Amino acid sequence: MMRILVLPFIVFSTVFFAQKKKNKLDVVSNIETRVIVMKPLGNNYLAKLVSPFYGFGFGGNLMTPLNFGVGVDYNVLFSNVKYGEQSLYGNIGSPTITNIDLYFTHRHVVSEDFSIEEMAGFSYYRQTNLLIDAKNKKIKDNATGFNLGGKALYTLDREGYQQVFVSGKVNFYFNNVYNENPEIKKFYNRSTFLSLNLGYRYNF
After folding, report:
1. The pTM is what?
2. For domain 33-203, is the CATH number 2.40.160.20?
3. CA dihedral defined by 120, 73, 71, 124, rounded to 10 degrees?
4. Could you give the count of Cα atoms lying within 13 Å of 17 in the half-sphere of its Cβ?
5. How many beta carbons lie within 10 A of that of residue 161, not counting itself?
6. Deepest of 108, 113, 155, 182, by most Cβ within 10 A of its Cβ?
């Protein structure tokens, strides 16, 4: 009788702890760091008056067993106003963009070493410029938009903890500058950013 009671208990315990261990592996998280080159495109003030942006970023995401997940990126990018364009840009300089991307992602596992991820989501921007005629004074503008991108990853170790990646992303930028002339308003309100990222990811 005792053996009959103990056997189901052992089976139940084995299944329970195996399921518990499996559940721990259901969602995979990671952190990333990257260097970024970003070029504004189109007929707008960032594309015409400003040099390409260079910077760095951090981020991470959560990935489910279905290979769908969510992620966040925090990026800081620096540029300069092109020579001779200071008056059109507004007598301000040293533009810096702080960008936060929230996105959904999907992963394709190509092989044990390679995988590809697609991304799409919402973007927030804060642009900071220094006043040329006033030291230590800054002008800050907020903007929003959305982002689309892709990422190719290569795994460095057998356990799959460390990866390097290259990614490309398109960000759409919508500001809220007011002007009665619709062409001028469009010139200063909208832009499209194309960026290339090289980075390192750690999974845990």
Report:
1. 0.83
2. yes
3. -60
4. 5
5. 13
6. 155
